[in-house]
Predict the structure.
Amino acid sequence: MAKSKLKGARLEGVVTCVPATEQCIDDEIELFGGNAKQIARLKKTIGLDRRRVVDEGITALDLCASAAEHLFKIASIDSDTVDGMLFVTQTADYSQPCNAAVLHGRLGFSKNCAALDVNLGCSGYVYGLWLAHTMVSTGACQRVLLLAGDTLSRQVNPRDRSVAPVFGDGGSATLVQACADSEAWFSLHTDGSGYEKLMVPAGGMRTPRGPETQTEKRDKEGNVRSLENLFMDGPEIFNFSITEEPQSVREILDFAGLDAGAISHFVFHQANRYILGNIAKRLKLDPLRVPMKTVEKYGNQSSASIPCALCYELGDLLKGSIPQKLLMSGFGVGLSWASAIVEIGSLPVCEVIELERPNYTCA
């Protein structure tokens, strides 16, 4: 079982960048056959309301770049002091090269900085934190910049009501740096037998894009999608989430030798409010200690959802001087899930910003 206790690394800043364009489920009544009552029910029970989506030509790399630039500016970080970069995304700019290399060049980082991508989604932020903490705690790096973001709105079919109102876009930047007296605990899991439950079937080397993969079909529920669109088996993902997540939380608490009372907040991947509420109920957690409002405002942002919840719902708290223990847990595509307990002191920057359209052009 992949569990580890790592010392000597700590979060020193988090910024999440979201697009300025907002979409609202109230404006998509045609997706639900004009049934306003169904939309009201979805808003009340699942928390589907608003989401941020990128304009044409904007990518997850653009969002993460803006988040990183803001973080460096506010925290007065010299980019030459960053010797590791991790980019967690499933919506990269190119199949080659990796996003981390492209962003490394854009931001003008030192040639002595290691840079690589991690192809994960909803669990990816915690996996990225694990890698960043490992790089720092072993002494391989002093400062690691973790980027996590996706633009899943560009992969969903707008006529697929099972996913179109759910997914929003976002990018984040988190700085992890050496700190002698800090500790963190991680547990990581995978069940690849369920990979087909959440996937984009076509577009890779197994099933290259072509006329057949672009053909749209309507399923028995009336959702329209092609093989190049994101598919999610909602009931199976729900069952997976409420089964594995409570167990994962109990496991990491036991591994760290802590009880739930020692945790300031439990920050889960913002899948939807119904899933979050079920997880909290099964763990008998006080809802006030479980951020759940981020998904209603920004949508399910995949790998950016946990940092967005940190910034949007806990930003003011984490900027304070009182040390906090946070339990963060992500779950989704793979199927994969991961949990972490981290100690956070005062973060000089922990906030959500909106993207300003960049003044550069890409080939």
Q: What stands out?
A: The chain has a mean pLDDT of 93. Residues 299 and 327 are 21 Å apart (CA to CA). The first strand starts at residue 2 and ends at 18. The radius of gyration is 19 Å.
